[in-house]
Amino acid sequence: MGIPKQVPTCGGAYWRNPKGCACSVATFFDSAFDSALNVKFSLNNIVAALGLLGVCATAAAADSSVTMYGRIDTAIESVKTGNDRINGVNNSNSYFGFKGQEHLGNGLKMGFILESAINSDDGSISNTEFFSNRSELNLEGAFGTVRMGRFLNPSYYAVADRTSLHNEDYGITADALYAGVENANNRLAYKSPAMGSLTVESSVSFHERSADNLGKNAYDLAANYDHGNWSFGAGYGEWAQARQYALRATWSEGGWTVSGYHQRSQDLVAGVTQKANASRIAVAYGVGAGDIQANFGHANGAGPAQAQQWTVGYNHHLSKRTKLYAFYTVLQNRHGASFGSDDMVANEDRKAVSAGIRHSF
To answer: Could you please report the per-residue DSSP string of 81-119?
Structure first.
């Protein structure tokens, strides 16, 4: 809780058998005929898909409450994990989605969000579930908002997301210390209407007797309060033996923004309850068309285990929807700690340089 190629035989794309000898003329023409049918079928699919897109575009033009949105974020990165260094072009949480809303009268609104994660560096889908980021239906009224489907923890957005100022907690520079207690699937949530400057959201993710869900429902609670230059957040998460609770404070004035959180968490690992504390502070200063970013985080794990992560960077905004960025981040694990990605081992460090471009639409 806490990301093969077969050699074609006769009748395939190539008309040589695995041994290299030529296929018979009859087999060749059978193959060609089948290929022609396949091409025709593919073209029909393409035409149908284009027609569907045309209908969707017409519907979107007629109803402004249905929109397509997304983000393409790609970077050139050099990442050193332990003694291994990898240089390349990487995706940084690109996605696209559809969202819409229908006014039902009497202040009621029915809405939906379908969002798919994509890899901008190779064009593939990031997960086996097509709408892996979000698949949500919601009903909004004077009583608040009821949400159902798949979506991430509200407690995460109340705390960690609001503290990750430099790149919205995405990519190689993402927060490696915050402990997420997360089951995004089969979720039912309720968000209160604004009570002055306070909003509260609670959710339950049903286990549905699935082994993947540990046979336990997951619970989440989040609160946000805004007052003047200050913003505060609180979050609590629970799933099986895992628990986390955290507090956040954010202050903004002029070009300055300062944000920080503190979190306590625990989980059952190999029959032993392990506890951790994590804190992070982030500072951003806007200058001209850009902003300078810096943040530092520290975490204590089981026993003497501890880790720290710091990031510095710069965003240059070419427009409201497009920016260039450059970041340098360091994650250090000490005394048996293994914070970071799942493939990192105890006491392993990670250093990364990232320079990229992000476009939102």
So the answer is: ETTEEEEEEEE-SEEEEEEEEEEEETTEEEEEEEEEEE-
Rounded to whole angstroms, the Cα distance separating 109 from 99 reads: 13
Please give the full DSSP string across 32-50, using - where no structure is assigned.
HHHHHHHHHHHHHHHHHHH
SS3 of 156, please?
A: helix
Residues 6+ apart with CB under 8 A from 256: 283, 284, 285, 286
Spatial contact of 143 and 210, defined as CB atoms under 8 Å apart: no
The single residue listed with the structure tokens 């306070």 is: 198
Contact 218, 204 (CB under 8 A): yes
Q: Six-digit token pair at 294?
A: 């810096």
pLDDT in tens, 31-79: 433 443 343 444 454 444 445 455 455 544 444 588 999 999 999 999 9
Beta bridge partners of residue 298, listed in sequence order = 279, 308
Give the end-to-end CA distance of the chain in Å, rounded to a whole number. Answer: 32
CA gap 1, 252 in Å, rounded: 33
The pTM (predicted TM-score) of the whole model is: 0.78
Residue 209, helix vs strand vs coil: coil
